Each structure stands twice: as C-alpha cells, then as structure tokens.
Amino acid sequence: MKRMGYRLAAAAVAAVLAVGSSGCRVGNEEVTISRGMADDEVFLIDGKVCTLPVMKLLLMNNMNLHGESYGIDLLQNEDLKVQKKFEQYVKKISMDEITRVYSMVALANAQGVTLTDEQKELAQWAGEDCFQSLTDEEVAYLNISQENVQDIYEKYALADKLYQSLVQDVNEEVSDDEARVMEVRQIYTTNEEQARKALADLEAETEFSTVAANYNEADEISLTLQRGMLPEEAETVVFSMEDGEISDLIETDQGYYIFCCDNKFDEEQTQIHKQDIVEQRKQEAFHSVYDPFVETIHSKLNESVWDDLSVREMEKYSFADFDVMYEKYLGKEIMSEI
User: How far apart are CA 137 and CA 74, in angstroms?
Assistant: First the structure.
C-alpha cells in the first residue's frame, strides 16, 4: 500500500465527478449503522474508534489534493451538481481509505504484526512534522492534537507493514513471454461475408490499413496488446506472429479477426507490464487473506456525524501534506531499511 499525494489529470475529472455517493463499506459489507456513538466518533472497527478530528484531517487533505485540476477549482465551480458530486467523491474516497487502514490494523493485530520502536519513532516524527505544518486556524477548526496525528500515522504505517508481510513471498520473476506487449493492426467484423471480402482484398495486395478502414467494426485499428486481451483463438495466432506478418482469417465466438503484426515485442512496454503483473500478484495475495478477515470483524458508523460532515466548509483551508509527510518518514524505502 503506497501513500503518495497526487492531483487528478484533466482527463480524469469527468470520471471523478461521475462517481456517486454510496454507503460506507468495509471490504464487501456495509458498515453497520449505530445510533449510540459519541458526537466526536465517526466509526468503530474491531474496537478501534476513528474520531471526528482525524476524519476531518483526512477529508481536508483529500479535498485539497483532488480539488483543483490544472487550475480548475471544483469547489468554486458554479454548477451545484458538480460541487455536490465532488463532495460525495471526497467523502467516499476518504472513508474507503481510512476504513481500509483500520481493518488492516485489526488484521495486523490478529496476525501479530507490530511496528518496531524505530518505526514508531518515525511515525511520531511524521505526526509532529504534519501537525506543525497545520496553521493555527486549521488546528482550531479540526480540534486536533499532535497525539491524534501521530496515532493515525502509526496506523497507516502498521497497515503498510501488514501489506508488505502478506506479499513478501510473492514471486516477482516474470518472463518476457508472459509480459510481452506487442503492436498490431486489426480488422474485426461480426459478418463472415465481410471478413472474407477483407481477406480477399489483402490477398490482392491492398494495403492493410486501407482494407481495415473499409471493413473494421472495432473502435480502433491499431492496438497495443497484452495476453488476455483477445479471445483465446485470436491470442494464440497473434502471439506467434512475426513482424510484418498478416494472419489468416480467425473465427471466434465474438466475431472474425485478421491481424497485421507491426511489432511483436515492445521491450519498453513489456518491462512496464512486468511490474503490473507483479503488482497484480501482490494484490491477489493480499486480498486472499484480507477479504475473508474483513467479513468477520465488527463495525459501526455514526450516521448522523458522518452525514453532517461538510467538505465545503473546509474550502478556506489549504492543508494537503499528509501524504508528503508519510513518504518523507515512512515511505517504502525507509520502512524496508529498518
């Protein structure tokens, strides 16, 4: 689990604002709503309470990380629907993030994973530095103490350490063939007659892109392919092709394909894809333990407190250093050295 600050690219804004609100979840289950919690308690997971100051700190941080994209201030946007969607988005990602951390802390406790004294000290330094980066006005609004901030950094660090412990035995060796990325052009159609006409044109030495422009029903002609992106029959053919080779007509349950191989091995993209494969293996290893555990733990949500929390009232505050401090003191490289 990597903690890094980032801002949304302009192209992602529409997708972000399309996210609606949904109930708070821990894993795949809705958090149980409780009317009996204190006014400064937002939720409880496995006996550990997340207080209002900590939740507001995370909301403020995420609001300022995601609130502007290339100079567009989403909170100041005149479209009330955009404002509402953005507030829902910030609340959702914040709740998803912190409930996941609390659930991972519960799992760490169950598995006997703990922070070393050195790691606890680093979490204290991160908390101290983070707290000092807050303005007096932000501290007053959040009603937060340095001890609150140090405690949440310890929880994030413990969740990070748990993740590393669950994925440490994952095989990180990935062959070139498994990760191979190649570049092709395609002709795809659901009509057999049209497919055979396209093949005849190619056999008459009409240029592939010209034939594709006439017959291809897919959104794209040029493709960057990895294993698993095509029907099995098509993949078997494509990944055996040489540069410049044009395939025969390939019939699948989804339709008919003809391919032209432009680059059978994109070395740069293959190396990147190797990292993706390793990360996918780690996610699978983590979730194979985490998901069943989450189904067993008890959780409560203070619905009235959560519903009353407003991101818009945080507009005048600029704090966005939570992730920066985490990486400075508790980043993966630092943690692995201890």
Answer: 23
Confidence of residue 334 (pLDDT cuts 50, 70, 90): low
Single out the residue of 133, 134, 5, 12 nearest to residue 72, CA to CA.
12
**Is residue 205 within 8 Å of 268, Cβ to Cβ?**
no
Q: Which two tokens stand for residue 217?
A: 């029903």
| Distance in angstroms (rounded) separating the CA atoms of residues 227 and 178 | 7
Residue 78 CB partners (closer than 8 Å, separation 6+)? none
Residue pair 187/198 in contact by the 8 Å Cβ criterion? yes
Run of H or E residues at 167: helix 146-167
Q: Which residue has the tokens 């099995």?
A: 232
Distance, CA of 97 to CA of 99 (rounded, Å): 6
C-alpha 39/C-alpha 304 separation (Å) is 9
DSSP 241-309: PPTT-B---EEETTEEEEEEEEES--HHHHHHHHHHHHHHHHHHHHHHHHHHHHTTS-EEE-HHHHHH-
- What is the mean predicted confidence (pLDDT) over 92-117? 96
In the three-class reduction of DSSP (H, G, I as helix; E, B as strand; rest coil), residue 315 is classed as coil
Q: Give the pLDDT confidence of 160-219 residue by residue, as tens digits.
A: 999 999 999 999 999 999 999 999 999 999 999 999 999 999 999 999 999 999 999 999
**What is the rounded distance in angstroms from the CA atom of residue 277 to the CA atom of residue 268?**
15
Question: What gap in Å lies between CA 267 and CA 235, rounded to an integer?
Answer: 19
Q: pLDDT-derived band of residue 9, with 50, 70 and 90 as boundaries? A: very low
Phi-psi group of 252: left, alpha or beta (phi > 0 → left; psi -120 to 50 → alpha; rest → beta) = beta
Average pLDDT, the chain: 88
Residue type, 149: V
Question: In Å, how far are 41, 65, 86, 241, 242 from 263, measured between CA atoms?
Answer: 57, 39, 42, 9, 8
The three-state secondary structure class of 328 is helix
Asked whether the predicted pLDDT for residue 269 surpasses 90, the reply is yes
